[in-house]
Design brief:
Two copies of one chain form a homodimer. By secondary structure, chain A is α/β, with parallel strands linked by helices. In chain A, about 35% of the residues lie in helices and about 15% in strands. Chain A has a nine-stranded mixed β-sheet with strand order 3-4-5-7-6-8-9-10-11, sandwiched between helices. A two-stranded antiparallel sheet of chain A has the order 1-2. The N and C termini of chain A lie far apart (about 80 Å).
């Protein structure tokens, strides 16, 4: 009856102007798609977000679930190929260091090149090794050149391996953007990051078999964009020894929800390149959860982030009594805790500058923090030449 | 030994310039990511591509597999909400036609508005109905306005329902692009098309329950972008009666593989908006397969395409003796078969203009082809007021 009355009432205003679209139609219901999708995103509860207060057994079960989800999101066996062993292309020398260039064939149709920097060492001694993953736009050649990340590790006595991101350096095609490549991979049900990880995984597997590498002392060092493959590889490979996370730690779902302040053109800036798009990722976890799941392996954070996120990571490591394996350094301006905002949630409708400020980031000082890495390396792999040592509990290095 | 020799030989060229990256490293193996991803795309064999020569039973099994894959790719029950019935907002009159504006609540946080055009009819008579899905940038109000697609169907005696695409018209937010919305939905493990279909599905479900609608005579009419939800809804809803496909029929995977000619800036143009991105879609099927799976329900194609693709659709309908349900019209310039190139494969490295020419498309004449729809409607729903008729074999309309 109410419905009929309503129709009759409306007949009375025939030819009246249509109702103005309300921003909110009925409580919690929106007319504009942007409000709807925003509310959907905000309401995502990642299935595998780390919850503190779990037992060691519960932690192990959660970690296994994270690993399974990482595998499901990123690994596509149907595109892999393993019929061909990696092949040495060239060898150069720089000072005492040998630089090898290799080619691997891990993915169908792909020949993937990487550089290996081998510092001088006694015959028969196995060295710890570092897989160096560059930042956006950096090439493996830049990492390997004097002063680059890989060169740094080689100078510290590590076998340093430098890889390229897809579509960069030697793998670049000037006619094809990285967005385009990411789009193709997404169409195939994969992702730019998944593809990148498949290439890096082949290099990592190969490193483990090298006679001069201590397979139980392989570190992954990721700079900027390179921290993304680091997290994925770290979760896929429980045998990786430790991690250098050289970027600020970020909740990317929250970032997408709050970076909504329109620019000067009145438009909301794009989330970021679809290179970062991994469909369904946020339904499972976010970056702090992936790092938490690396426990108990040592992680060095060189460019800070929000205390909230580090508390989560520390809580995770504490579950298995490994809180001392997390080492956190903030940007210079935010080293004093009093200088940091202790936010539980980022405010909405901010721009990138404000986001960085509240996340304790100094974008102009973003760079590889070798001075923090050096002592950390010494702490965790100092005894690398003591071949007889074993790994349990990392006690060999921790005294 | 060969390896060792190779190393020694290379030592001899120490400090030589690094090898020039070969376009192709070894047979079938590429260095540049763009060659690799291109080869990967080209080698996709869609799992559910229609293969002619199957029996009626095999066809039914294939059709069920297509339906299951469509459901998996597009339907996300976790984002749906059905706790609230659609609500009538306003009623207007235009000439003899009643225009209702309704609001439905099919997806969490969403209030979704649509227009219903009801032509004059005798009390108690049920009318056939058409769900009208607009092209890119068109609004439901444009479809409903005099001369629009929905108005056309209402003038033919059909209850015509007009919907909006997400982010268009009333649902638009001037600060947020459709790309942005698509990105958010992809992040959630959904897609722009999947979300769009969820809204349309609710409207379709509601149409089926309307007392003045013949639920067994519901047609979906899609213009341009609107053909995409048409194909998905058609496969999800075996009870939809017939389809007006108002765009050219296209293999989108092939299009992405051949539209690689760089533009004036030397860059390959982007594939298209990520509104069209449905991760993994091409691994299952392409548009001609989805249309083939609509058999035996009548489909009207108003803007042609390649004979190759229509042969596939006709072959599918023939499997179940329904070839006469497919009606194909080409653009004026390509109506004479002699004017059409009978290609089995599009050539590579072409631009959009050449692609359209070879696909028998006249882009400037893209528009709703009411003159083709009118006789087709008469053919398939002429007896719509004979309420007692039943549906099997569509014999009631086919004489």
């Amino acid at each position: 009856m109410k419905q009929v009355f309503s129709i009759l009432a409306l007949y009375a205003v025939l030819d009246a102007a249509p109702l103005e679209p309300a921003r909110e139609a009925v409580a919690g219901r929106w007319i504009t798609t942007s409000e709807i999708t925003h509310a959907m995103l905000e309401n995502i509860q990642p299935r595998l977000a780390f919850r503190s207060g779990v037992t060691a057994e519960e932690f192990a079960a959660w970690q296994a679930d994270v690993r399974a989800a990482v595998k499901r999101l990123f690994v596509r066996p149907e595109y892999l190929a393993s019929d061909r062993a990696p092949c040495l292309l060239t060898v150069e020398r720089r000072d005492d260091c040998r630089i090898e260039k290799w080619e691997a064939y891990p993915v169908r149709h792909a020949a993937v090149r990487f550089l290996v920097l081998i510092p001088p060492h006694r015959e028969g001694v196995r060295l710890p090794a570092v897989l160096c993953i560059p930042g956006s736009g950096q090439t493996k050649e830049q990492l390997a050149s004097p002063g680059g990340m890989a060169d740094f590790y080689a100078c510290q006595g590590y076998i340093a391996v430098a890889v390229d991101h897809p579509g960069i350096g030697e793998t670049a095609d000037p006619a094809v953007s990285e967005e385009y490549l990411a789009r193709q991979l997404l169409e195939m049900g994969w992702s730019w990051l998944g593809y990148s990880v498949a290439l890096d995984q082949a290099v990592l597997d190969w490193m483990k078999t090298r006679a001069d590498v201590r397979a139980d002392r392989i570190i992954i060092s990721g700079f900027s964009l390179g921290t993304e493959p680091l997290m994925v590889l770290g979760n896929l490979n429980p045998d990786v020894y430790a991690f250098v996370y050289n970027d600020f730690l970020c909740r990317t779902l929250e970032r997408a929800c709050v970076l909504t302040k329109p620019g000067k053109d009145g438009r909301r800036p794009k989330i970021n390149s679809i290179r970062h798009l991994v469909p369904g990722f946020w339904r499972e976890f976010d970056f702090p959860d992936l790092v938490a799941a690396l426990a108990p392996r040592p992680v060095l954070f060189t460019e800070g982030g929000m205390d909230r996120d580090f508390n989560l990571v520390r809580a995770a490591f504490s579950c298995i009594h490994a809180a001392d394996r997390v080492e956190i350094h903030h940007y210079a301006a935010f080293q004093n805790p009093a200088s940091r905002e202790l936010l539980e949630h980022m405010p909405e409708r901010i721009d990138r500058d404000e986001f960085f400020r509240k996340a304790n980031v100094e974008p102009s000082r973003h760079g590889f923090k070798r001075d923090l890495v050096r002592p950390w390396l010494k702490k965790w792999t100092d005894t690398h030449e003591s071949d007889g040592n074993t790994l349990p509990g990392y006690s060999l290095t921790n005294g």
